[in-house]
Structure formats: structure tokens, C-alpha cells
Amino acid sequence: MSSKSNLSISDHLLKGDGIIPYLLEHTKGGEFQSSYPDSVIIHYTAGGSAESSARHLRNKDVKASAHLVIGRAGEIYQIVPFNYQAWHAGKSKYGSRVGYNKFSIGIELDNAGVLTKAGTEYVSWFGKKYQQNDVLQARHRNEQDLKYWHLYTPEQIAACERVVKLLIENYGIKEILGHEEIAPGRKQDPGPAFPLDRFRNRLLFEDRADDETPLKGKNYKVTASQLNIREGAGGQFKKVAQPLKKGSEVTILEEKDGWCKVKTTITGWVSKGHLDI
Ligand SMILES: [Zn+2]
Prior knowledge:
Lysozyme-like; 5-stranded antiparallel sheet; 4 helices; 29% strand
């Protein structure tokens, strides 16, 4: 992609270099209610190419869709206009909100997802092989074990950032979440190869990074049936006690990267998405 600065949105469609209009003839979801979309959900395709994923999501017989698919060179397929809902979130919940298709724009990034090591190569679930320089070994925020993840390209992350910036300006987007955060246990995309925390902090919070956290000192209730409480802000940290039960009240002391340090009978870190914030 040569020129990258001419991206714009008009009539709920992206315009500019590298945009490939690939619209569904009949949208699968209805129009957004007024005041929505106010969120962006980041996904990976777990597929072999942006074009094949876009073609799949565009198929009227497939019960899934997304607004955009971003390829590894930064090219962008638009499948659903931004004023219509797409079917990307599925059963989903974050804080007190349920069913994120009604609230959010879905962005799919062309990426093979979790890979399995085979000799000196890494293999996707669909049998494509990848070399070591395309792979990150890392621990997922919702899991314990190290796994191999297909890397995103810098062009792809930059294209995603430009689009989300435009969506913030045009739709007042207030929340950027990963599919793994609104459907933990069921979904693991975009996974640790996508710099989700830095990405949303840069786009949503950079100009008020020094502010006190607005949640600090306030009390919230646990919405998950069981909520792990840990030594640090991430799934890799040790649990400090038995999980908190649904309805337990906690006081927020600190907030970081989608996690909150809370005080109840004990003190520790919990995933922010499972509090009724
Ligand atoms: Zn997803």
C-alpha cells in the first residue's frame, strides 16, 4: 500500500487506497440502533488468506459476517457498511453488556491463529506451514500454557489502527476489545500476537494516561459464576485465593490493561470484564 493517508468514511463505507469493496448484497444483521456502534471488536480469521476469509464471510449461506477483513499487506475488504450490524461476536458478554453484535464493529485480521510445531516448521489447523520468523511463542491472557501464534504484519496492524482511529472520529467509539475478552473460554482471538492493550491505550486513552483511574475507590459486583483473583494483571499470574463468587462485592484500587486490582476480604487482580462496570 503506497499512499496511506487518504483513508476516509463516507456513507458508512471506507474510501481510499487499499480498500476493496466486497459488500454483502443483503446484510445479515439489522441496522444499528441510534447511539451504536460504540465499540470495536478485534478478531483473527484463523484462515489462509484475506480474500478467502472475506469470500466466506460474504457468503449469504454462512451464519457469520464482519464489517472488515484486513489482509497482511494492509489491504481492507469491507463486507458490511458501518451502520449495519454484522454477525461476528456470537454469544458474548463484557461487564454488564451481553450480545456485542448490537454494539460493535467487527474487524477480522487475516491470521492463521494457533500453530502446532512440527520439526522446524509450524502448522495451522488447515495444514498450511509457517516459518519461525512468522511465529510468536506466548501465553494467552486467558490461559496458562505457552503456545505458538501466527504473527500479524506491521502493515496489517497499522491499517487496523488507521481504520479504528477513523471509526472513533466518525462514530464516537469508546471501547476496543478482543473477541477473547467478550467470549473468554470460547474464543482466543486476536490472541497474544496482537498488541491489544497497547493498541487500545494508544487510541482511546493516550491523552489522559496520567489521569487517576475513574473506577478507583468504587464498588462493583462479580458477574462471572467464578472469578479468579491473581497476584498480577494477567492470566499468567498465580491465584491468590479461591475464585470469587458471583455477586461478591469488590472495591477497585487500580486498573491496568483490562485487569483491576481489587479489595474484598483479600486483595488481588481480576479481569475487568467480569465486574458489573
Ligand atoms: Zn473472533
